[in-house]
Structure formats: C-alpha cells, structure tokens
Amino acid sequence: MKKFAVGIDIGGTYTKLGLVDKDGNCPVQSKLPTKGHSDIEEYLKNVKIEVDKLTNQIDDCEIVGIGIGVPNGNFYKGTIEHAANLEWKGVVPLIEKLKPIFPGIPAILTNDANASAYGEAIFGSAKGVKEFITITLGTGLGSGIVVNNKLVYGNNGFAGELGHTRAVDNGRECGCGKKGCLETYCSSTGLKRTLLEMLAIKKAPSKFRDLGINDFHGEEITEEALNGDEVAKAAFEKTGFILGRSLADFVAFSEPEVIYLAGGLVSSGELLFEPTRRSFEEHLMNSYKGKVKIMPSGLMDMNAAILGAAALIWNEYE
C-alpha cells in the first residue's frame, strides 16, 4: 500500500487539499470554496468528497491521517476559535465534527502558520535545524517558533502570534483591534499602505500616483521597484527596516539558528531581504550579531500550505 497523509489548508476563500507521502511528494491536489459554506457539517461533507476523489486517483492508497492548518486553530483542543476571516464564528470543534466523517483516521489541527513551520522542518530547509522561526508574509503575517525541535504552543495553544506584537507605537489599526501591529506594516497589505504613505512624502514620479489601494497588488510594487520607481523602492526600504527591527527583538527570546521567510512578499527577493538583514543586524544585541541567518523558505516553489498541514501527520507518524 502507498501511504499518504491528507494535507488540508483552510483559507477564508478557498480550502486546498492534497495527498502527501513521507518524502513530501504531493501527486494529487484540489481545492473547494470555503466561502459560502456557513454550515460546517455540509462543508466537511464536501471535504470528504474531495478527499475521496484524490484517493481514487492513486492505486492502493492508504490514508494514515489528516493534517489541517487553519486560522486561529488550537492544537490542544482541535478547535477553530474566533477566526475573523471564516464564516464559522465562535469556537468550532472541528476535529470532533470530522471524526464521524472519517472514522478511524486520526486528525490533527493547528494554526496555519504553525503548520508552515512543521512543513519547513519536515520537508523544507529546516531539516536538522533545532531552533528556528518561520515568518509568513502574505495578506497578514503568520509565525511559528521552534525550540529544541518542538513547536511553541504556549499554555492555551495560541503562542507565537508575532504578527500582533507592536512594531510602531500608536500605529496603524489592525484587524485584531490593536494599533501598530507588525502585520499592518510587514505584509502585502502593509506594503501597499506604506507605498501610499511614500507617495505623500516623496515627489518622485510613480505609476501609483493615480491609483487607489485596491487598484494594484504587491507584485506590481515589486515590478516597479525593479524598474527604478523610487517610491516603490522606498516602500520596501521602510518595510525591511521595520521587519528587521522586529526580528532582532524576536531573537532575544529564542535565539534561533535561522529565521525563514515565506509567503508572497518574499518573491520580491533582495528588495525585501537586503533592508531586512541590514536593519536586523543593526538592532541585534552584540552577543547575537552575525550568528542568526535570515533565509527564504525551502518550500517557496511548492504548495507549502498543503505540505505543512500534512507534515503534522508525518511528524507524529514517524
């Protein structure tokens, strides 16, 4: 029998699914809408249909477990708790609801950013690295902290929300209700907001002067910065400065060997990495300087979300 773990990444708009073997190969995958499924039981029945479609594509397929990455997922309880971008409000006992739909198959749930850290450890560049932090720079900022080969969950299962540490005093409003959170500056959304600020500060010509915040994407900021747009370059400079300063603070509590950056914003390459590393070294305590690497995720060219969710199962299985 060919053994696979089901990796499920639940996002606000779509849910991605795939079958992943112990070597990180994902021969089949699919997706279904998350949005529009206000009934969780009906949603899980559709997940079962998709999983069955995937397993039917592989001869002699055995499912060893189901790993799920989801916003506000509680590893200890198997619940989704007050996720702002999902239609299921309050506390949702997802693992309990999953058991009768997949009888006899173990299932594990965790926060989506923690799942990415598992993926980095099992399938990515963190193999053999005992102490590391993953930072996912997407629409928001997610993070996972690994200490002595173990993910840090904290007392109630929600440790490591580094995106909601304060980066700027009395700064931008965040969806969590606080002000100045790191994710409001260092994410694709944060980069766009910074660009608009730079347009007000700088007189240099820019294609973005006639556009509103919903008229362009982060990829366009990268493209224009590479083409010499001074406003776009300044936006990356500020983003990297704030990110590097915050990463230097994070080093103080876990002293990782590596900090891995993942997510769409990382595709901007040195536009982001150069100012981030420069600011990072500037703000580190002397005892840490030159000892912590900042690197791109080893899963950038793969479906990291599915691999990360499946890694939850393979970590336990092995």
Integer average pLDDT: 93
Q: How many strands in all?
A: 13
Counting DSSP H or I runs of 4 or more residues, the number of helices is 8
H/E topology pattern: EEEHEEEEHEHEEEHHHEHEH
CATH class of the largest domain: Alpha Beta
The CATH homologous superfamily of the largest domain is termed ATPase, nucleotide binding domain
Q: Domain count, please report it.
A: 2
Question: How large, in whole angstroms, is the Cα Rg?
Answer: 20 Å
- Major sheet size, sense and barrel closure: 5 strands, mixed
Side by side, the strands of the main sheet go 3-2-1-4-8
The CATH architecture of the largest domain is 2-Layer Sandwich
Unreliable segments of 5+ consecutive residues: none
Helix and strand content put the structural class at alpha/beta
Q: How widely separated are the two ends?
A: 17 Å
Strand content: 15-25%
Oligomer: single chain
What is the overall shape?
Answer: globular
- Which percent range fits the helix content? 25-40%
Kindly report the CATH topology of the largest domain: Nucleotidyltransferase, domain 5
